[in-house]
Amino acid sequence: MSPAPPVVRLVGAGRRFGGHRALADVDLTVRQGERVAVLGPSGAGKSTLLALLNGAWPATSGVVEVLGEDLGALSHGRRRLVQRRIGLVSQRLDLIDQVRVLHNVNAGRLGRWPTWRALMSLTLARPDAEVRDALERVGLGWAASERTERLSGGERQRVAIARLLVQQPELVLADEPVSSLDPGRAEEILGLLRVASAGSALVLSLHQPELAQEHCTRAIGLLGGEIVFDLPVDQLDPARLTALYALS
C-alpha cells in the first residue's frame, strides 16, 4: 500500500526574529491521517512551528510546503486560499464574544461562501442543519442562540471545535488547546479534536506527554528550535522526556 499523501513538508525550515533563532533547519513530513503532538518546554519553538505551517509567519530559510503549495512562493491572495483549507484552534480561540454562538460556528464556512452569503450569515438568527449538527456533536446543541461571552472556558473550546467541523479543513493546527483545562476537560477536548480532524491531519502542541500518547499517533520533541526526536507515541520513554524537559 502506498503511503498517504503529505499534507506538510518542511525542508531545512528555519525562522529568526532579529538575532534570535526560533527554529533551525527543521525537516518534517506529516501525512494525511496522522495525529502529531509537538512536545517541548516553553520557548522551544512550538508556536513558531505552527505559525509557519499556517503561513502566519514566513520561514527565513528553507521550504515550507502545506497542502501541496510552497507557502514562500505564493502571492498573498494565493496563500489566503491555502489558509482557508487549514483549521486553527489557538490558545485565544479567536471567537467573537459579543455575537451568538451560531455566528462563531458559521465563521468556519466563510472561506467557501460568496460575499453576499457571508454577510447574510451575520444577521441570521437561526442555525441551519449543518450548524445544529456540529453543535450537537460537541455537546452544545442548546447553545446556538447564546451569546458567546456567557459560556464557560470549556464551552468556548467546544464552539471553536464546532467551527472546525463546519469548516471541514484538510489540516488542523492546535496550539496548546488544553493548557488551561483540568484533566477531564482536556481528555474531552482532545477527543473532539480527533473527530474534527478525521480524514485530514492534526498537528498540535502539548505540554502533557501522557495526552500525546493517548490521542496522537506520533510525537515530535522540540528543544531550542530543533527537533530532538520524532517517533511513534508508543516509543516515547521516560529518558527522552526527562532530557526534553530537563532544566538547563
| Global outline | globular
Supply the CATH class of the largest domain.
Alpha Beta
Considering the protein shown, what is the CATH homologous superfamily of the largest domain? P-loop containing nucleotide triphosphate hydrolases
Instruction: Count up the domains.
Output: 2
Please give the order of strands in the largest beta sheet. 6-7-8-3-9-10
Helix content: 25-40%
- Contiguous helical run count: 9
Runs with pLDDT <50, length 5+?
A: none
Q: Using DSSP, what is the number of strands?
A: 10
| Rg on CA atoms, Å | 18 Å
Structural class of the helices, strands and pairings? alpha/beta
Mean pLDDT metric: 90
Instruction: Give the name of the CATH architecture of the largest domain.
Output: 3-Layer(aba) Sandwich
Structural description of this entry:
The chain is of the alpha/beta class. It folds into 2 domains: 1-85 and 178-248, Rossmann fold (3-Layer(aba) Sandwich), CATH 3.40.50; 93-168, no CATH class. Helix content is 33%, strand content 26%. The chain is built from 9 helices and 10 strands. Helix 5 packs across helix 6 (153-167) and helix 6 runs parallel beside helix 7. It is globular, with a radius of gyration of 18 Å.
